[in-house]
From TrEMBL:
Top enzyme class: isomerase
Organism of provenance: Fibrella rubiginis
SUPFAM superfamilies: Nucleic acid-binding proteins, P-loop containing nucleoside triphosphate hydrolases
Family under the similarity heading: Belongs to the helicase family. RecG subfamily.
Pfam hit, one: RecG_wedge
Domain Helicase ATP-binding: 285-448
Physiological role: Plays a critical role in recombination and DNA repair. Helps process Holliday junction intermediates to mature products by catalyzing branch migration. Has replication fork regression activity, unwinds stalled or blocked replication forks to make a HJ that can be resolved. Has a DNA unwinding activity characteristic of a DNA helicase with 3'-5' polarity.
UniProt key word Hydrolase: yes
GO biological process terms, semicolon-separated: DNA recombination; DNA repair
Catalytic reaction(s) noted: Couples ATP hydrolysis with the unwinding of duplex DNA by translocating in the 3'-5' direction; ATP + H2O = ADP + phosphate + H(+)
Keywords: ATP-binding, DNA damage, DNA recombination, DNA repair, DNA-binding, Helicase, Hydrolase, Isomerase, Nucleotide-binding
Catalytic activity, EC: 5.6.2.4
Name of this chain's protein: ATP-dependent DNA helicase RecG
Encoding gene per record: recG
GO MF annotation list: 3'-5' DNA helicase activity; ATP binding; DNA binding; hydrolase activity
């Protein structure tokens, strides 16, 4: 073990300047146990103490200010919990009050009348006079000028503050730790990258992230540490991908006779340029003799299913079987119904296996899979059961990847112990490029970024509640033209705390506005039993119902080409990606389709941005980028399960260019030196060896 690793493994209670009691508090409250943990507990913001203000310059809009002056005197006011200590503070340009509600007796003992202090806090104005409640107060010593700095602010718990571990204590502990750690901090990036991107050294970066010498130094420290974090994140993903490609052979799909027959005689419409490009990428993967691991991204309605079917034909042509796994029965049924006409026309045996498949049917399925008589199997998680065994599974397609974890993918691998099947992961949830690189960096990525010809972009409008009569009039017009309408609500029953239109209320209102027998209104929600859901959805699909009032159950629902209007009630309640998914339920046919976003008047800035984005664009990737900026990466694409997202400093919504540079750098290094044996790559090799290859995050200090 190197000297460097031993220092960063030092337990906090052995560090100078901390002591066992504070160390125990940091263990329990913040899960910080070693010097390495503490030095990487970065501030989440900084208070600007680089400037002193006079009392005359104070404004209520300031988030905080520091003032140098004299504490003339103080007195207590009020009784009980309202008892407070009020100090009179002056600096020659005016006077202000300093107010405390806690620790009064201790303050009275320690404050000095006419003492010179620096007061720091949020200025508040009342009747022309400023005050600061619970200011930080530092006495100015005659022999030392007060320091003007950017002060770090750490995420601390209430218990820590009560036990007097505040930002000042943390900054002091950090300074002591940094002084002790200085000789042990080694460079972790090669000189070539430091030079190319003009990065500051590792030591200077770690020091200035905690105790910045100036705003410029803070920017440089952040830039350096973000680059390093993303570089090691990408290096690990790309290394894993290369290992996977080296270690895992894949079946070679060279024959294309079935494919040619399908193209020539049965393809219902010409493929878009994007579909053709993606199919070329997939075919190339299937010729290498290495296992394919590819993510296929495409917006709702971009034609992923036909790409999936053509890929299946490639497998079947070469003596292998294919399966398609979907997260819900509704979606599995939809895929099965979508593929059935193609499979029948090609004379292929297509089966479906879900939780509701009868035992008798299951027995037949299992037998046909083992003999190879079954060519394609569509299903839900039921496909993962051990009893489901294939004769030769060559291709596994997984739909809506974020609903399935890595363990489930691995289970599909084991279905063919000799040569793992090629894996194609499909998603209709557009993932921003930065997020895809971090989440799925070990997969190759294909994107269908073009809509099939003849698809008209959906027209989206935002209407307030007062426009309801106008919206109803528009719905009547569309129904007269023979179209159908979805009306989506966020809730099933009225919630006491939320003043939003609920489904049952909306359903009754809709029946009054669109009375029988002229109109038929249906209802669909998650609390209905599967039979009732299917019954309602089938009536709508057959055109027996004009308006379907529903909750988000229809987000992943059946394809109804005749439904051309989507009205979303309380649209402010939905996230951007959900609004986009709901809108994708219409626009399936050749008619012009519409989406109407209904809201109340009180809208936050974020909500306004969401609605404006929906009205402005139909492009799922553009929408995903705005969503990432609004929500951050944690909520998107189910990233919690990936274990890759605990980035400490980098922000995928803002640091796209840094991520791209880091990924390209990692790629070039691994292509030229996969074993990292060149002398110039020693810092990378030493760093990875020091923290152990088992650790999931190589950017950590070791």
């Amino acid at each position: 073990m190197t000297e460097r690793t031993t220092f960063f493994d030092t337990r906090l209670d052995y560090l100078k300047g901390l002591g066992p009691q504070r160390a125990e508090l940091l263990n329990k409250e913040l899960s910080l146990f070693t010097a390495g943990d503490l030095i990487q507990y970065y501030p989440f913001r900084y208070e600007d103490r680089t400037r002193f203000y006079t009392i005359a310059e104070l404004m209520e809009s300031m988030p905080s200010a520091q003032v140098r002056g004299r504490l003339r005197d103080w007195h207590t006011e009020g009784e009980g919990p309202k008892k407070r200590l009020v100090g009179h503070f002056t600096d020659g340009t005016g006077t202000m009050d300093l107010v405390w509600f806690q620790g009064l007796s201790w303050l009275e003992k320690t404050l000095r009348r006419d003492g010179e202090y620096v007061a720091f806090g949020k200025p508040q104005e009342f009747q022309g006079k400023f005050s600061i409640v619970h200011p930080e107060l530092d006495a100015i010593r005659p022999d030392a000028e007060p320091e003007a700095t950017l002060s770090p602010v750490y995420n601390l718990t209430e218990k820590l503050r009560r036990r007097f571990v505040d930002n000042k204590v943390m900054a002091k502990a950090m300074r002591s730790l940094l002084e002790q750690a200085w000789p042990h901090i080694s460079e972790t990036l090669p000189a070539s990258l430091i030079e190319k991107f003009r990065l500051v050294g590792k030591r200077e970066a770690v020091w200035n992230i905690h105790l910045p010498q100036s705003p410029a130094w803070l920017r440089q420290a952040e830039r350096r540490l973000k680059f390093e974090e993303l570089f090691y994140n990408q290096l690990r993903l790309i290394a894993n991908k290369l290992i996977q490609k080296e270690e895992h052979p894949g079946q070679v799909f060279a024959k294309t006779a079935l494919l040619a027959h399908f193209y020539k005689n049965l393809l219902p419409f010409p493929l878009t340029g994007a579909q053709q490009r993606v199919l070329r990428e997939i075919h190339k993967d299937c010729l290498t003799g290495r296992q394919m691991n590819r993510l296929l991204q495409g917006d709702v309605g971009s034609g992923k299913t036909i790409v999936a079917f053509i890929t299946m034909l490639l497998a079947i042509d070469n003596g292998a079987q294919a399966c398609l796994m979907a997260p819900t029965e509704i979606l599995a049924d939809q895929h099965y119904n979508g593929l059935k006409p193609f499979a029948d026309a090609m004379g292929l045996n297509l089966g479906i296996l879900t939780g509701s498949t009868k035992t008798k049917r299951r027995r037949v399925l299992h037998e046909e899979l083992q003999t190879g008589k079954m060519h394609i199997l569509v299903g839900t998680h039921a496909l993962l059961e051990d009893v489901v065994q294939f004769r030769n599974l060559g291709l596994c397609i997984i739909d809506e990847q974020h609903r399935f974890g890595v363990a489930q993918r691995a289970k599909m691998w084991a279905k063919n112990p000799v040569v793992p099947p090629h894996i194609l992961v499909m998603t209709a949830t557009p993932i921003p490029r930065t997020l895809a690189m971090t989440l799925y960096g070990n997969l190759d990525i294909s994107i269908i970024d073009e809509m099939p010809a003849g698809r008209k972009p959906i027209k989206t409008v935002h209407k307030y509640d007062k426009h309801r009569a106008e919206v109803f009039g528009f719905m009547r017009q569309q129904i007269e033209l023979g179209r159908q309408v979805y009306v989506v609500y966020p809730l099933i029953e009225e919630s006491e705390t939320l003043d939003y239109k609920d489904l049952t209320d909306g359903f009754e209102g809709m029946q009054r506005a669109f009375p029988q027998p002229q109109y038929q209104v249906g209802i669909l929600h998650g609390k209905m039993d599967p039979y009732s859901k299917d019954y309602e959805m089938t009536r709508f699909a057959k055109g027996e119902v004009n308006i379907l009032v529903a909750t988000t159950v229809i987000e992943v629902g059946v394809n109804v080409p005749n439904a051309s209007v989507m009205v979303i009630e309380s649209a402010e309640r939905f996230g951007l990606s959900q609004l986009h998914q709901l809108r994708g339920r219409v626009g399936r046919g050749s008619d012009q389709s519409y989406c109407v976003l209904m809201t109340g008047y009180k809208l936050s800035a974020d909500t306004k941005l969401r609605l404006e984005t929906m009205v402005r664009t139909n492009n799922g990737f553009e929408i995903a980028d705005v969503d990432l900026q609004l929500r951050g990466p944690g909520d998107l694409a189910g990233t919690q399960q990936s274990g890759l997202m605990d980035l400490r400093l980098a922000d995928l919504a803002k640091d796209g260019p840094v991520l791209t540079a880091a990924r390209e750098s990692a790629q070039i290094i691994l292509e030229t030196d996969p074993q990292l044996i060149l002398p110039e790559h020693a810092p990378i090799r030493n760093h990875i060896d020091a923290i152990g290859r088992t650790q999931s995050d190589w950017s950590r200090i070791s």
